[in-house]
Amino acid sequence: MSDLPEYNFAYLDEQTKRMIRRAILKAIAIPGYQTPFASREMPMPYGWGTGGVQVTAAILGTDDVLKVIDQGSDDTTNAVSIRKFFARTAGVRTTTRTPEATIIQTRHRIPETALGEHQVIVYQVPIPEPLRFLEPRETETRRMHALEDYGVMHVKLYEDIAQHGHIATAYAYPVKVDERYVMDPSPTPKFDNPKMNQCPALQLFGAGREKRIYAIPPYTRVVSLDFEDHPFERTRISGACSLCNSTKAFLDEVITDDQGGRAFMCSDTDYCEQARSRIGPLS
Amino acid sequence: MEGVDQLSNSFLKPVGDSHEVFRAAMNALAYPAQPRVLPSDLSPCGPMAPGSLALLLTLADHDTPVWLASSLATSESLRKFIAFHCGAPVVDDPTLAAFAFFSSPLELAPLARFAQGDPDYPDRSTTLIVQVEAFDDCAWRFSGPGLSSPRSFGVSPAPKGFADMWTANHAGFPLGVDLLFVCGKEIAALPRSLRISEI
To answer: Which CATH number fits domain B14-198: 3.40.50.11310, 3.40.50.720, 3.40.50.2000, 3.40.50.410?
Structure first.
């Protein structure tokens, strides 16, 4: 008896995996549409990525190499615990290197290194419905998606312009997938939105508490909503990473003392480490 | 059937095998209209090919009503296989089916008889799993999500008027059915999001 595993492979039982897998197949066939699924209680609280974890568990195999990032970082609490969770329940190989990973679970960043066809990126999503803060009723937002009635979203972006002079939405910036569904890209900075367009990798989104799975197939047109006279702008703190000098990567602000001192560094830790190993430490 | 014990005709490693079959189906839908490997060590069950059986075991269970085309529906051993290995109810009404199985693409028409989904819930549609004799790449040209450039793809035997059938299926997007074609140890998919043109 002691030879029996404590868990089924990757924690979830096979019937649950079948249910999630069916939802994933439907989500791929209807890009950007939020497919309901019977989200399970996971051994971590809502908000810690229970949706992403269930999607990852349903697609994970023994040959996969898993990378988990939290705000671009491989070594923050959420990333470390999810990586350990799958190392323990599935025994899969884990990595922090973006090109080596076959499955990348992410909380709110897309790696700076371009993804390839051999990869799947799984997003943890807190609120999958892009219209939720504009219309609280699920019955109504369902109908709005069915009728492709997205005027209210443009009004919201217009109100940004009226109040601030520009579209002030900086993260969870709504996109239109293959000219049909308006979709919430999860709270990624809008800097990452262009990476979703025509991406060679399959993109899966899991929302555990809200019980929704959606997808962007590879090579799919993903357009950030905007206006002709106020086109979408990719924003980034101007300046260079203080560790690797990158002027292209998305930067985090780091408080260095209590005198108002601050520094900027790459949000994507793997990208930063690789850049540093190429150029050597900055003096 | 032909000396095959259908009670033991199942995945040797249920967890690993169903994962491999699912990933093949997932990648087939994500990178559509291109055949890829569908691993399966199963024996056929009556008129049902091992690839279709592998998809059945991977995707169907007591939550998913299954519909069988007339060439499959008459097989008593197949009905027993589904009851024993999946517990999935076999239904006569195609609008109730989560999965529909065909032993030939010539039985496909009309696609509109299957569940198309609901405007609020387009996922409530039937997925069609179709055995074909061969894949060829010259019959139709597809474009859409999953394809970096238009791609030609076809199946043999080719159903008559398939381009019109598929145009009608895509016209209802996001409603419609999705097709999974099985040929020996290969699978290729046509999700409803694809547009078709005849070459």
So the answer is: 3.40.50.11310
